[in-house]
Sequence to fold (598 residues):
Amino acid sequence: MGRIISVHSFRGGTGKSNTAANLAALYAMEGQRVGVVDTDIQSPGIHVIFGLKEEQTPLSLNDYLWGRCTIEQTAYDVSAALDGNCQGSIYLIPSRVNAADIARIIHDGYDIDLLSDGFRELIQALKLDILVIDTHPGLNEETLLSIALSNSLLVVMRPDFQDYQGTGLTVEVARELEVPRMVILINKAPSSFDLEQIRQNVSETYNCPVAGVIPHSDEMMGLASQGIFSVHYPDHPVVLEFKKVAKALRD
Amino acid sequence: MTPDTAKRIRAVGVCIAAGFLYGFANVLSGRFYLPGCDFAELRPQVVVPMFLGILYGPLGGFAAGALGDMVGYAIGGKGLFFAVHWSIANGFMGLIPGLSRCLGARPVDSIPSFARLLILLVLASSLPFAFSTGVDVALGSLPFHQALFFLFLPIFITDTLWAFLFIPLLMKLAGLLLARIEMRTILAVYYLLIGTVMATWLSIILITMGDRLRVEELYTLGSVTLVVLAIGLGVSAFTSKRITAPVVSLTRVARQVGDGDYSRLDALEVIRRRSDEMGTMAEVFSEMVQSVQKREQELKKEVQTLKVLIDRDKQSADLEKITGSDYFKSLKQKAGKLRRRTGGEDS
Ligand SMILES: Nc1ncnc2c1ncn2[C@@H]1O[C@H](COP(=O)(O)OP(=O)(O)OP(=O)(O)O)[C@@H](O)[C@H]1O
Ligand SMILES: [Mg+2]
Fold:
């Protein structure tokens, strides 16, 4: 049965969506059946990385949460985004980008329990090995739920003072929820930094293993979320770090 | 047979073959003087033992020179040991350029090493024959005056010119002369000078052809020409060095900077004071390096100060706010069950 992996960060823009997409891609390249859910209903984005346009996705997670359809109906096969390297398959469950829809869901809210039922149905219906959840930054209710449901949690942070306090809080909350496995990914480290020193410092401060340290990468910046980094630059050192993280979250 | 012995055997073979080549060439050139001019024997083959020396070392050069001389006598029907002191002299003519390896003139990659090579060539064309001519004089077989103007000077001047003309070319072909910028500059001037000197020299020989009375003037003039050539080369070496030295030291400093060594920048100080383009280039380069160095140091400083700091009190207060909510409490209760339901719970 499927394993749920949540990718979270306390602050926005740390690289969650790109990391989630790359992890999903690496698993699918190994032949796994992977689902990716964009639970960032307020600022969705991961569909862009998989090259999925809004008009191609008549139904989204929002529709499921409003009871308009089943969750399988919102899953789109995006295996083609791997340029023929996909040994398994990837399904993406996008969120609605439309501003009115976003405003509505923020205003009306939805039944949080539906989300956990949805994950379960999705894993069963699509026979998923792994379900990757891209979350909204912060610690709101659906994010807490995603964390609580996770078998593995990846906390993404930047070596930036704005990230330190919130990352600590996230790690403690996940501990309270007894998430079975939790690792940290440090992203966007200036390449001039001593990456090993950052890794040690962070893992000691949070008392939590650091599964990868990814330097700021001009190639990643240049890709501008218009594709999956591991597919475009399979031999790049950044991909090596993604692979380490993928292994730490699964094994 | 080890590859080393094979190489040595091949070298000996080449030296013997070269000796024979030199010998035959000696017989031929001994027959063909410039028309009507029996003192002007043109012997470009002297470069064979010299080059053998450069290639295979002093012993190889000696073997090729001495053997060649003896073979020449033998073919001429005079017997191998017709003039042992001349054979020895010819051996030394090959031996002396062979010292180039020990004296840092091989491979030729700079003006100083080129100068050392030329000095060896001059020595190889003079010392051995001063000896053999001297022996002839001492034995009383030639009067001093005759020995100087009809034997030593013709040999010395023509051998030097042949060596100067061909040895750098042969070394270039053998990959022993490297095309560094200062070599490129000096070689152009060098061949211009040699060409001019040789052309002049040959014209004078042709003009005075067969006129035995003019021989002394001819070779005195020849010696003067060699001196002028030496001065010309010295001057052009100096100017080439002046032109190319900044490029060479800039390159060296650039390489050191590439290796992360910023300590040699003051070596550019002299170049920076020049008023030409080189000066500007050195100026721009050192400014660039200084700003790179500054940036690097700043980044290094940041590495040292990177330290994750968290306010533990604030953290536990925030944590309590979250974990205290009813939603969280029920979530915490359900969490384990929810995870098991999706089935991926770690065992
Ligand atoms: N290592 C990196 N080097 C350079 N740029 C990066 C790196 N990682 C991510 N980025 C860039 O940072 C931006 C934000 O990435 P991403 O959308 O994945 O973050 P996010 O955490 O999902 O953001 P949000 O919180 O808004 O959802 C993107 O433009 C991405 O290309
Ligand atoms: Mg995102």
